[in-house]
Amino acid sequence: MRLHVLDATFELFRAHFGYPSRDDPSGKPVGATVGLIESTLQLLRQDDVTHLGAAFDTEIRSFRNDLYDGYKTGEGVEPELLAQFPLAERALGALGVVVWQMREFEADDAMATAAIRWADDVDQVVILSPDKDLSQVVVEDRIITFNRIKGTPFDENGIWEKFGVGPASIPDYLALVGDTADGIPGIPAWGAKSSATVLGHYGALEAIPDDENQWEVKVRGAARLGASLREHRDEAMLFRTLTTLRLDVPLEESLEDLHWQGVRRGPYLELCDELGATGLKDRPHLWAD
């Protein structure tokens, strides 16, 4: 048995940019929500998708914004997309999917918490997200990430091949190279290759000697890298805090609660009418009732 955990925020963004725009009968944009419904129904048709939870950034702010002013917010997100967040959450609920609405925490934190919490109770946890942050909770082939756009799974060996570091070092890696999607600038002079070389050996920021002459690995521009890390080590540690996912999100459900029983007929059909998407009414292959 597998547990699938869906990055619903990413899926809504993907639907917004990948599906045709459309309005409901009142003229409000609903294309992203309709696309999310279609892609989730496709997911639920897969035989191995029996247990599913979805996490939403209900507010694109979290405790991390209190730690660092530059951390990502909803600024710059198109208003017609932001306006669909509540509707999209309701849509997944109508599909019978458990939805975790994140406010203080982020969707990534909820997915990481779910993956670690139930990893020993299932054969495999599949985190449906391309987000680099989630690579840190990958464990061998028991917890993997899966990029639905490319159809690419990443187990622990795949993380090493992709980043040059193991899952446990991903927060340190992102602290050094930065993550523009989250507003983390990284440390000057440190790039993907140098970070992978040094962290691939030392594993964590605090294990990297201050004096680059003591480094046990050879890396181009070591003097510049060492000077930059000495100057910005406190920032690097803060960035690592920001990129480290929380595993203590208070998810109330049990694993059995995540067992998908089918689409909720009444709420779903009403939603289709509200969206002006009557063509979706016959798409579900299983009804909860």
Provide a compact summary of the structure.
With 289 residues, the chain is of the alpha/beta class.
Index terms:
elongated; Rossmann fold; 2 domains; 40% helix; alpha/beta; DNA polymerase, domain 1; 289 residues
Describe the fold and architecture:
With 289 residues, the protein is of the alpha/beta class. The protein has two domains: 2-156 and 246-280, 5'-nuclease (Rossmann fold); 167-243, 5' to 3' exonuclease, C-terminal subdomain (DNA polymerase, domain 1), CATH 1.10.150.20. It is 40% helix and 11% strand. It has helices spanning 8-18, 31-44, 63-67, 79-82, 85-94, 107-118, 156-163, 170-177, 192-202, 222-243, 265-275; strands at residues 2-7, 51-57, 98-102, 124-128, 143-147, 152-154. Strands 3-2-1-4-5-6 form a six-stranded mixed beta sheet, with helices on both faces. α1 (8-18) packs across α2, α8 packs antiparallel against α9 (192-202) and α8 (170-177) packs across α10 (222-243). The radius of gyration is 21 Å and the shape is elongated. The chain starts with a strand and ends in a 14-residue tail after the last helix. 40% of the residues are buried. The model has no long low-confidence stretch (mean pLDDT 96).
